[in-house]
Amino acid sequence: MPKKSPPAHVYKYQPVTTRTLSNLKQASIWFSAPADFNDPFDCALRGIDPEQGLPDSELQRVLDQMRRNPGMSAKLQAEMCTADGKPTPKFRQSVIRSLQSAIENERKVRREQRGVACFSELRDDIVMWSHYADGHRGFCLEFSTAFMPFSKALQVNYQDNFPTIPAGVLFSDHHAGHDEGTTHQLMQAFVLTKAPCWGYEKEWRTLHIDANKLFTYDYHALTGIYFGAAMPYAQKEIISLILRGAPTQLYEMQQAERGFALTPRTVTYTPFPYQQKSESA
Question: 103-108 — which CB contacts under 8 Å span 24+ positions?
Answer without folding.
Answer: 103/45, 103/46, 103/47, 103/48, 103/165, 103/170, 104/46, 104/47, 106/186, 106/190, 107/43, 107/44, 107/45, 107/46, 107/190
